[in-house]
Structures are given as structure tokens and as C-alpha cells.
Amino acid sequence: MSSFDYGVFIGRFQPLHSGHEAVIRSALEQVSTLIVLIGSARTARDPRNPFTHAERVEMIEHVFKHEVATGRLVLRPVSDHLYSDPAWCAQVQRCVDETILDLQNGGGIGLHGLRDVSIALTGYGKDRSSYYLKLFPEWDNIQLDSQYGTFSSTDIRRQFFQRIPVVPNTVVPDEVAVWLDRFKMSETFRGLLEEAEYLEAYPTEWGRGPFVTADAVVIQSGHILLVERGRLPGKGLLAIPGGFLDPKETVRNAAVRELREETRIRDEKGEIPPAMLASFIDDRKTRVFDHPERSLRARIITHAHLFRLPDRRQLFEVTGSDDARAANWYRLGDLRPELFFEDHWSIINLMVDL
Ligand code: NAD
Fold first, then answer.
1. Nearest atom of ligand 1 to the alpha carbon of 79
2. Residue ranges of the chain whose pLDDT lies below 70
3. Residues 6+ away with beta carbon under 8 Å from 308
4. Chain centroid to CA 241
5. Most CB atoms closer than 10 Å: which of 102, 122, 131, 340?
């Protein structure tokens, strides 16, 4: 007889290791159904989040074949809201409620809600990054005996993303070791390794910061102006035009300069002069984005400026230049989080109120 109807376990599983496996097995002894929420879903790959949501599902399904097949283990994605824990909590709450209602009613509408269902959260307060375990006082807690080893996914990634990759067989389940062995032969692995090496060298070459940058969130007639990054890190990903401050300029002027340099933005009369571009800035919306983990390069604090260009049928012309491989207008409705570099998806969401 299980102590709880449902358990909830939240993690990134980058990759799934034996500590996660032990927690899941122990939780399964205490709950009828365990809902595993796979965090940081729908983001672009980077050396900290190298595996997609679908790949992490695959790893977990390989290890817990029986539990997944019998419906005792249910996997769901949750995205990050880097600048709003309440928004992230709301997403987790909604995801758990919907999953339970779905399972209870076979997809039908829940008549009695979740009043009579017991739910418990599991996980280790391993370090400061596990503070989120305190964000759900409405749920019980599943007590776990002890932490399974002192290793973490970070250590595993450090050993794995090397020229001669090491798959630490002793701390990942066999099925995950096989999965990683296959992954290390892929083109994707090579791209991530290149990125990891670049990031490793970054502090020696450029320092650890804090650095100040300025970004330009430019909208016109339901479209946003984005660049495709031409260099590491995040080569090929979409980004807001922007960059590092020159020693003698204001943050606001830096946003205008970077916008002009990276997009060559112009109308029928030619490139738009800095003063005119600056006049489109909605100064009430200028906002600092300073999440300590927003960049894997260094501590980089950015100031996003919202440029509201006049709505018209013909969007201003743009051409990618400088650090940008391309510059293009994108329909706001077409944007997807996994296309974006660093926290640029979050910035756009908050600046444009998507
Ligand atoms: P993780 O994969 O590192 O860990 C998952 C769980 O396993 C944690 O409870 C951890 O303590 C436990 N664990 C780790 N190593 C262990 C070991 N050796 N033995 C036993 N247990 C071990 O994932 P995480 O980073 O804790 O995942 C949290 C997710 O929630 C992330 O995706 C994060 O981005 C997300 N999150 C988002 C927000 C937001 O967007 N505002 C806020 C909080 C959390």
C-alpha cells in the first residue's frame, strides 16, 4: 500500500545518473504514480543543457521500461522562467494538476478536482540550486534516507565533453552509459564539445566579468528583428541584436550602435541615423537582465531596450553584418524558445509581453 497517490520529482537530468535513479526507485516505493518533471525543457542545447527533452525522456524510458509501460512513471516537460519563480511554480502546479486529472479521468473533465488526492514532492536539497523544493508547501514531502553519492550531472558532463570522452559507468545506469556512448559519435556531440572548449577558455581570454551589455528588442507591425549568431558561442542560434559596451558610451547609445552594426537597418532613404533610431526607444520599458546563470561565458549583465518602430506595410530593410550571420524579421507568433541563445527568449517575453 503506497503512502501517497502521486509523487512529483523535478530535475534536469543532464544526464540521468544513478543518484536520480535511486531517488526515483525509492519514491516509487512510496507512491502509486510518480510524475517526473523534466526541467529546462524547450531550450537550445548548450554545454550545461546538452540533451533535449526528447533525449532525456529516452534515457529515462530505457532505465524504467516497466514503470513507464505500466503507467507508474509519467514524464512531463517544464520550461524555465528565469526571471519569475512564481510563473515557473504556476507552470509546475498546472502541469501536475492536468496530469493527475488526465490520469484520473482518462482525459475527461474532473468533477471533483484534486481535493481527495494525496501528492508528495521528492528530491534532495543538495545545494543552493535545490531551493525550489520549498516552493510547494501545498504538497507533502517524501522522506529519502540519504543522498546517493556525492556526484552530480555537472561532474559527468565535465568528463564527457572532452576530446577523449569518458562515460562514467559507475555513476550512470547501464542504459544511459550505452546511450551516451552512441551520442559521443554524433555531429551534435562535436558541436557541443567545440562550444564547451570555447567556454572553458573564455575566462582566461576575456575575464569573468561582471560585464555590461546592451540589447535592442526591435518590433514593427507584429514582427521582431533578430540576428543569427555567426560565431561561438551559440553559433546559428537566434539572438536579439546587442553587445558589449564601449568604454566611453552610455548603455542606451550602445544599444543603438549595436543595432545599426549588426542589422544595417534602413528605410527607403538609407540607413537610419542613430538619433532617429534612439527616438523609437520606449524608455519606460528599459530593463536589466541579470540572472547569474544567464550566460555560460561570464557574469554578463544586460540592459534591454524596446524599440517600437512605426507600424507600416513595408518593414524596414535589414542585412546581417558584424557578429551577425543574418538579420531578419520574424513574426512574433512564430517564435519558439529552443531557437534562442542564452536567455533571449525570456527577455523577449518580458519586454514584449508575449
Ligand atoms: P538535477 O537533475 O540536478 O537534480 C534533480 C534532483 O535530483 C534534485 O532534487 C537533486 O537534489 C537530486 N540529486 C542530484 N544529485 C543527486 C545525487 N547524487 N543523489 C541523489 N539525488 C541527487 O536538477 P535541478 O537543477 O535540481 O532541476 C531543477 C529544475 O527546475 C531545473 O530545470 C531548473 O531550471 C528548474 N527551475 C526553474 C526555475 C525557474 O525557471 N524560475 C526555478 C527553479 C527551478
1. 40
2. 1, 106-115, 125-129, 145-147
3. 219, 220, 280, 282
4. 19
5. 122
Q: Which of 25, 80, 128, 152 to mutate to test the pocket of ligand 1 (most atoms within 8 A of CB)?
A: 80
Q: Which of 183, 203, 232 is the last residue of a domain?
A: 183
Evaluate if pTM is beyond 0.85. yes
Name the residue of 84, 132, 151, 296 to mutate for ligand 1: max ligand atoms within 8 A of Cβ.
132
- Note whether residue 229 is domain-resident: yes
Ligand 1 centroid vs 326 CA: distance in angstroms?
36
Residues 44 and 175 in one domain: yes
Assess whether the C-beta atom of 293 lies below 6 angstroms from ligand 1.
no
Q: Cis link prior to 137 (omega < 30° from 0)?
A: no
Domain of 346 in residue numbering reads as 211-352
pLDDT in tens, 137-154: 999 998 776 667 778 999
Query: 223-229 and 211-220 as β-strands: parallel, antiparallel, unpaired?
Result: antiparallel
Segment 114-134, tens digit of pLDDT? 668 999 999 876 666 678 888
Q: Whose CA is nearest to atom 19 of ligand 1?
A: 19
**Both 34 and 139 in a single domain?**
yes
pLDDT at 318: 97
C-alpha cell of residue 258: 549595436
Helix (H) or strand (E) holding 62: helix 53-63
- Within a domain: 204: no
Looking at the domain assignment, is residue 201 inside a domain?
A: no
Structure confidence at residue 104 (pLDDT): 83
